Each structure stands twice: as C-alpha cells, then as structure tokens.
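Could you join me in thinking about how sequence relates to backbone shape in a protein? Label the sequence line and the structure token line clearly, so we can match residues to local backbone shapes. Once you have written the record down, we can walk along the chain together.
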Amino acid sequence: MIYLELIWTFMKIGAFTFGGGYAMIPLIQSEVTARGWMSTEEILNFIAVSESTPGPFAINMATYIGNETAGFWGAVCATFAVVLPSFVIILIIARVYSVLQTNKYVAGCMSGIKPVVIGLIAGALYTTAQAVFFPQGLNLGMFADTAIWLSLVILALDILLAVKKIHPITIIAVSAALGIAFGYADKLLI
C-alpha cells in the first residue's frame, strides 16, 4: 500500500537526517528516485519552488512528494512521517536535557555529526549545481544555452545583494522576477 510506503520512507528521512532540510536533499533524492515517484529534474524544480515558499523545507518537500505520489492522503502521510521522528526525539531530549547537556558521549556524538551535516549540504549543492548548470557535463556547448547565462547572472546578482546585506526576501523576489523575465524572453527567441 502506497500510504505505508510513504510513511516508512519519510520516517526514515526524518529520523536519519541531522542538520535540517538541506541535509535531507540527498536522502530525499535517493529514496524518491529509487522508488520512481519523481525524477531528479522534478525534485530539483521543486527544491527551487520550496525554497521560495513559506514553511520548512523538509515539510514542503514531503507534502509535495506525498501529494504527487498519492494525492491528499499521501501528502498527509508523508508530512506526518517526516515530522514524527524529530518531534519524538525533541520530546525525549527536552525531558532529559539537564543530564544530556553535560554528557561527554552526547557531546562527542554531536562533534561527529556536525562535519557529516556540512558534507551532506555540500553534496546536495554539488548534485543540484551539476543538474542545473551542467546536465550534459562540462563542455563548450553549454555556453550556447541561455539558461547557463541566466543562472550565472542571477548567481552574481544574489552574491552582490547578499554582500550588500540586502534582505533575503528582496533577493528571492529579484531572482524570481529575473527567472520569469529571462524564461519568457528565451521562449520568444525559440
């Protein structure tokens, strides 16, 4: 039954992902594509949408994938399942916080998890950048595609705005407007 499969899959994702939504990307991509629920391109497209919509990234992803896979109840199952492990873990930690705060084993565990989280985020950045910027690999022909130029212009502008301490909402709005404008102009040129 698809609902049980969604629950099991997203409970694993929720239970074994430390470091938030970005660290979940490789696990979500692996689990979802292995089951044939979505393609890598569909996941990457929704990552972009999810990043520009309100709400936690992991919940947005689980809700969308659940809905695409099994409709409304699939969305409910996936969302519930991705949140449940963290909820239970936080309840347990809150209950025994004073003991865990000074425990050397917990401190050692957290010291080991931090670099893994950085690695998972870097891995997600690499696979996303590869799929977006270099889907056919590195070659000179990629510079003939307007999408690469659009992406580079938006990236440069985003870096400039971030350095100038422009509010993130402004950066998202400007990027979305440029993406729409360039996407529309690109379709007119074809």
In short: Residues 133 and 147 are 8 Å apart (CA to CA).
